[in-house]
Amino acid sequence: xxxxxxxxxxxxxxxxxxxxxxxxxxxxxxxxxxxxxxxxxxxxxxxxxxxxxxxxxxxxxxxxxxxxxxxxxxxxxxxxxxxxxxxxxxxxxxxxxxxxxxxxxxxxxxxxxxxxxxxxxxxxxxxxxxxxxxxxxxxxxxxxxxxxxxxxxxxxxxxxxxxxxxxxxxxxxxxxxxxxxxxxxxxxxxxxxxxxxxxxxxxxxxxxxxxxxxxxxxxxxxxxxxxxxxxxxxxxxxxxxxxxxxxxxxxxxxxxxxxxxxxxxx
Length: 266
What we know:
The chain is built from twelve helices and two strands, in the order H-E-E-H-H-H-H-H-H-H-H-H-H-H. With about 270 residues, it is mainly alpha-helical. Helix 2 (about 35-55) packs across helix 8 and helix 5 (about 75-85) packs across helix 7.
Protein backbone atom coordinates (compact mmCIF):
# COMPACT_ATOMS: atom_id res chain seq x y z
CA UNK A 1 0.00 0.00 0.00
CA UNK A 2 2.82 2.36 0.92
CA UNK A 3 4.67 1.53 -2.29
CA UNK A 4 1.55 2.26 -4.30
CA UNK A 5 1.16 5.60 -2.56
CA UNK A 6 4.81 6.44 -3.18
CA UNK A 7 4.44 5.57 -6.86
CA UNK A 8 1.34 7.74 -7.15
CA UNK A 9 3.05 10.60 -5.32
CA UNK A 10 6.15 10.44 -7.54
CA UNK A 11 3.98 10.50 -10.66
CA UNK A 12 2.02 13.47 -9.37
CA UNK A 13 4.97 15.53 -8.16
CA UNK A 14 7.75 14.79 -10.62
CA UNK A 15 5.75 13.68 -13.63
CA UNK A 16 6.61 10.94 -16.12
CA UNK A 17 7.33 11.89 -19.76
CA UNK A 18 3.64 12.37 -20.72
CA UNK A 19 3.33 15.13 -18.12
CA UNK A 20 3.99 18.70 -19.21
CA UNK A 21 5.26 21.56 -17.02
CA UNK A 22 2.72 24.35 -16.76
CA UNK A 23 4.61 26.89 -14.63
CA UNK A 24 7.83 28.44 -16.01
CA UNK A 25 8.85 29.64 -12.54
CA UNK A 26 8.27 26.37 -10.75
CA UNK A 27 8.84 23.49 -13.19
CA UNK A 28 7.81 21.01 -10.51
CA UNK A 29 4.18 21.90 -11.22
CA UNK A 30 2.92 19.58 -13.95
CA UNK A 31 -0.25 19.23 -15.92
CA UNK A 32 -1.44 15.63 -15.71
CA UNK A 33 -1.84 13.74 -18.97
CA UNK A 34 -5.64 13.38 -18.70
CA UNK A 35 -6.03 17.16 -18.98
CA UNK A 36 -4.09 17.24 -22.23
CA UNK A 37 -6.27 14.40 -23.45
CA UNK A 38 -9.39 16.40 -22.61
CA UNK A 39 -7.94 19.32 -24.58
CA UNK A 40 -7.34 17.03 -27.58
CA UNK A 41 -10.89 15.68 -27.34
CA UNK A 42 -12.30 19.20 -27.18
CA UNK A 43 -10.24 20.22 -30.18
CA UNK A 44 -11.24 17.17 -32.20
CA UNK A 45 -14.93 17.99 -31.81
CA UNK A 46 -14.31 20.80 -34.32
CA UNK A 47 -13.26 18.19 -36.86
CA UNK A 48 -16.31 16.11 -35.96
CA UNK A 49 -18.50 19.15 -36.57
CA UNK A 50 -17.05 19.53 -40.07
CA UNK A 51 -17.61 15.86 -40.73
CA UNK A 52 -21.24 15.96 -39.60
CA UNK A 53 -21.95 19.13 -41.57
CA UNK A 54 -20.92 17.25 -44.68
CA UNK A 55 -23.38 14.41 -44.19
CA UNK A 56 -26.00 16.24 -46.21
CA UNK A 57 -29.69 15.50 -46.51
CA UNK A 58 -31.75 12.76 -48.07
CA UNK A 59 -30.93 14.01 -51.58
CA UNK A 60 -27.25 13.26 -50.99
CA UNK A 61 -27.93 9.90 -49.39
CA UNK A 62 -29.80 8.62 -52.45
CA UNK A 63 -27.15 9.66 -54.96
CA UNK A 64 -25.79 6.70 -56.95
CA UNK A 65 -22.61 5.39 -55.35
CA UNK A 66 -20.30 6.07 -58.36
CA UNK A 67 -21.60 9.65 -58.58
CA UNK A 68 -21.17 10.19 -54.85
CA UNK A 69 -17.60 8.81 -54.89
CA UNK A 70 -16.66 11.04 -57.83
CA UNK A 71 -17.82 14.14 -55.98
CA UNK A 72 -16.33 12.92 -52.69
CA UNK A 73 -12.89 12.36 -54.22
CA UNK A 74 -12.82 15.96 -55.47
CA UNK A 75 -12.20 17.04 -51.87
CA UNK A 76 -8.54 16.34 -52.62
CA UNK A 77 -8.58 19.55 -54.68
CA UNK A 78 -9.01 21.54 -51.45
CA UNK A 79 -6.26 19.61 -49.67
CA UNK A 80 -3.80 19.93 -52.55
CA UNK A 81 -4.61 23.61 -53.06
CA UNK A 82 -4.04 24.31 -49.37
CA UNK A 83 -0.68 22.54 -49.43
CA UNK A 84 0.47 24.33 -52.57
CA UNK A 85 -0.79 27.89 -52.06
CA UNK A 86 -0.97 28.22 -48.25
CA UNK A 87 1.78 25.95 -46.97
CA UNK A 88 3.91 26.57 -50.09
CA UNK A 89 4.79 22.88 -50.45
CA UNK A 90 6.38 21.53 -53.60
CA UNK A 91 3.80 19.64 -55.65
CA UNK A 92 4.74 17.39 -58.55
CA UNK A 93 3.19 17.89 -61.98
CA UNK A 94 1.73 14.40 -61.84
CA UNK A 95 -0.14 15.17 -58.62
CA UNK A 96 -1.42 18.43 -60.08
CA UNK A 97 -2.68 16.51 -63.13
CA UNK A 98 -4.42 13.95 -60.92
CA UNK A 99 -6.17 16.70 -58.94
CA UNK A 100 -7.22 18.41 -62.18
CA UNK A 101 -8.74 15.13 -63.39
CA UNK A 102 -10.75 14.90 -60.15
CA UNK A 103 -11.87 18.52 -60.49
CA UNK A 104 -12.92 18.19 -64.15
CA UNK A 105 -14.88 15.01 -63.38
CA UNK A 106 -16.74 16.62 -60.46
CA UNK A 107 -17.50 19.85 -62.35
CA UNK A 108 -18.70 18.18 -65.57
CA UNK A 109 -20.72 15.46 -63.84
CA UNK A 110 -23.81 17.61 -63.00
CA UNK A 111 -24.10 18.63 -66.68
CA UNK A 112 -23.94 15.00 -67.84
CA UNK A 113 -25.95 13.29 -65.12
CA UNK A 114 -29.28 11.98 -66.41
CA UNK A 115 -30.55 11.91 -62.80
CA UNK A 116 -29.59 15.54 -62.14
CA UNK A 117 -31.14 17.03 -59.00
CA UNK A 118 -30.21 20.61 -57.97
CA UNK A 119 -30.75 19.97 -54.25
CA UNK A 120 -28.76 16.78 -54.36
CA UNK A 121 -25.76 18.45 -55.99
CA UNK A 122 -26.03 21.40 -53.62
CA UNK A 123 -25.61 18.99 -50.71
CA UNK A 124 -22.83 17.26 -52.65
CA UNK A 125 -21.00 20.60 -52.91
CA UNK A 126 -21.43 21.19 -49.17
CA UNK A 127 -20.17 17.65 -48.54
CA UNK A 128 -17.12 18.25 -50.75
CA UNK A 129 -16.19 21.48 -48.93
CA UNK A 130 -16.66 19.96 -45.47
CA UNK A 131 -14.63 16.84 -46.28
CA UNK A 132 -11.86 18.98 -47.75
CA UNK A 133 -11.84 21.19 -44.65
CA UNK A 134 -11.80 18.05 -42.46
CA UNK A 135 -8.72 16.73 -44.27
CA UNK A 136 -6.96 20.10 -43.99
CA UNK A 137 -7.78 20.24 -40.28
CA UNK A 138 -6.42 16.71 -39.85
CA UNK A 139 -3.16 17.66 -41.59
CA UNK A 140 -2.70 20.84 -39.58
CA UNK A 141 -3.44 19.39 -36.17
CA UNK A 142 -2.91 15.79 -35.16
CA UNK A 143 -3.77 15.18 -31.49
CA UNK A 144 -0.90 13.39 -29.82
CA UNK A 145 -3.01 11.62 -27.22
CA UNK A 146 -5.77 10.39 -29.56
CA UNK A 147 -5.37 7.34 -31.74
CA UNK A 148 -7.26 6.84 -35.01
CA UNK A 149 -9.75 4.66 -33.12
CA UNK A 150 -10.27 7.39 -30.52
CA UNK A 151 -10.94 9.92 -33.26
CA UNK A 152 -13.53 7.66 -34.89
CA UNK A 153 -15.17 7.03 -31.52
CA UNK A 154 -15.47 10.79 -30.90
CA UNK A 155 -16.94 11.24 -34.38
CA UNK A 156 -19.59 8.60 -33.66
CA UNK A 157 -20.50 10.01 -30.24
CA UNK A 158 -20.66 13.55 -31.60
CA UNK A 159 -22.83 12.32 -34.47
CA UNK A 160 -25.34 10.71 -32.10
CA UNK A 161 -25.53 13.79 -29.87
CA UNK A 162 -25.80 16.24 -32.78
CA UNK A 163 -28.36 14.29 -34.81
CA UNK A 164 -30.48 13.46 -31.74
CA UNK A 165 -30.60 17.12 -30.68
CA UNK A 166 -31.39 18.25 -34.23
CA UNK A 167 -34.13 15.70 -34.84
CA UNK A 168 -36.86 17.82 -33.22
CA UNK A 169 -36.04 21.20 -34.87
CA UNK A 170 -35.67 19.46 -38.23
CA UNK A 171 -39.06 17.75 -37.84
CA UNK A 172 -37.63 14.24 -38.11
CA UNK A 173 -38.65 13.24 -34.58
CA UNK A 174 -42.38 13.16 -35.25
CA UNK A 175 -42.25 12.46 -38.97
CA UNK A 176 -40.48 9.19 -38.15
CA UNK A 177 -43.81 7.93 -36.79
CA UNK A 178 -45.22 8.12 -40.31
CA UNK A 179 -42.42 6.05 -41.83
CA UNK A 180 -44.19 3.16 -43.63
CA UNK A 181 -41.66 0.49 -42.60
CA UNK A 182 -41.30 1.57 -38.99
CA UNK A 183 -43.04 -1.53 -37.60
CA UNK A 184 -41.45 -4.05 -39.96
CA UNK A 185 -38.91 -6.31 -38.31
CA UNK A 186 -36.92 -6.49 -41.54
CA UNK A 187 -36.34 -2.74 -41.39
CA UNK A 188 -34.98 -2.90 -37.84
CA UNK A 189 -32.88 -5.97 -38.55
CA UNK A 190 -31.45 -4.28 -41.65
CA UNK A 191 -30.58 -1.19 -39.60
CA UNK A 192 -28.83 -3.33 -36.99
CA UNK A 193 -26.97 -5.29 -39.66
CA UNK A 194 -25.91 -2.07 -41.37
CA UNK A 195 -24.69 -0.63 -38.07
CA UNK A 196 -22.69 -3.74 -37.19
CA UNK A 197 -21.22 -3.93 -40.69
CA UNK A 198 -20.20 -0.29 -40.57
CA UNK A 199 -18.68 -0.75 -37.11
CA UNK A 200 -16.56 -3.76 -38.08
CA UNK A 201 -15.61 -2.06 -41.35
CA UNK A 202 -14.39 0.94 -39.37
CA UNK A 203 -12.34 -1.31 -37.06
CA UNK A 204 -10.79 -3.07 -40.03
CA UNK A 205 -10.05 0.27 -41.71
CA UNK A 206 -8.30 1.62 -38.61
CA UNK A 207 -6.29 -1.60 -38.28
CA UNK A 208 -5.33 -1.51 -41.97
CA UNK A 209 -4.31 2.14 -41.74
CA UNK A 210 -2.08 1.51 -38.72
CA UNK A 211 -0.41 -1.58 -40.19
CA UNK A 212 0.36 -0.23 -43.70
CA UNK A 213 2.04 2.77 -45.23
CA UNK A 214 0.03 5.71 -46.52
CA UNK A 215 0.61 4.59 -50.12
CA UNK A 216 -0.53 1.04 -49.44
CA UNK A 217 -3.59 2.27 -47.56
CA UNK A 218 -4.49 4.59 -50.45
CA UNK A 219 -4.18 1.68 -52.90
CA UNK A 220 -6.46 -0.57 -50.81
CA UNK A 221 -8.96 2.27 -50.42
CA UNK A 222 -8.96 2.88 -54.18
CA UNK A 223 -9.50 -0.83 -54.88
CA UNK A 224 -12.44 -0.91 -52.45
CA UNK A 225 -14.01 2.11 -54.15
CA UNK A 226 -13.63 0.55 -57.59
CA UNK A 227 -15.26 -2.70 -56.46
CA UNK A 228 -18.08 -0.85 -54.71
CA UNK A 229 -18.79 1.41 -57.69
CA UNK A 230 -18.69 -1.52 -60.11
CA UNK A 231 -21.10 -3.69 -58.10
CA UNK A 232 -23.53 -0.94 -57.09
CA UNK A 233 -25.55 -0.98 -60.39
CA UNK A 234 -26.37 -4.62 -59.69
CA UNK A 235 -28.19 -3.70 -56.47
CA UNK A 236 -29.35 -0.09 -57.01
CA UNK A 237 -31.13 1.65 -59.84
CA UNK A 238 -28.83 3.89 -61.86
CA UNK A 239 -29.30 5.41 -65.30
CA UNK A 240 -26.23 6.70 -67.11
CA UNK A 241 -25.22 7.77 -70.58
CA UNK A 242 -21.84 7.90 -72.31
CA UNK A 243 -21.01 11.35 -70.92
CA UNK A 244 -21.81 10.30 -67.36
CA UNK A 245 -19.65 7.19 -67.63
CA UNK A 246 -16.86 9.32 -69.15
CA UNK A 247 -16.93 11.61 -66.09
CA UNK A 248 -16.80 8.62 -63.77
CA UNK A 249 -13.84 7.17 -65.68
CA UNK A 250 -11.99 10.50 -65.63
CA UNK A 251 -12.52 10.68 -61.87
CA UNK A 252 -11.24 7.12 -61.49
CA UNK A 253 -8.13 7.89 -63.56
CA UNK A 254 -7.50 10.97 -61.43
CA UNK A 255 -7.68 9.00 -58.20
CA UNK A 256 -5.47 6.25 -59.66
CA UNK A 257 -2.82 8.85 -60.48
CA UNK A 258 -3.19 10.28 -56.98
CA UNK A 259 -2.62 6.85 -55.46
CA UNK A 260 0.44 6.39 -57.67
CA UNK A 261 1.94 9.67 -56.47
CA UNK A 262 1.23 8.65 -52.87
CA UNK A 263 2.97 5.29 -53.29
CA UNK A 264 5.98 6.66 -55.13
CA UNK A 265 6.27 9.86 -53.10
CA UNK A 266 6.24 12.07 -56.20
